[in-house]
Amino acid sequence: MNLSGGCQCGAVRFEVADGGLGKGSICHCRMCQKAFGGFFGPLITAHNSHLTWTRGAPAYFQSSNKVSRGFCQACGTPLTYVVEKDQTELAMGAFDDPAKVPPLSQLQTSTRVPFFDGLPTLPERDLTGLEGLVSYQHPDHDTDDWPR
Question: Which domains does the chain have, with CATH numbers?
Answer without folding.
Answer: 3-111 (2.170.150.70)
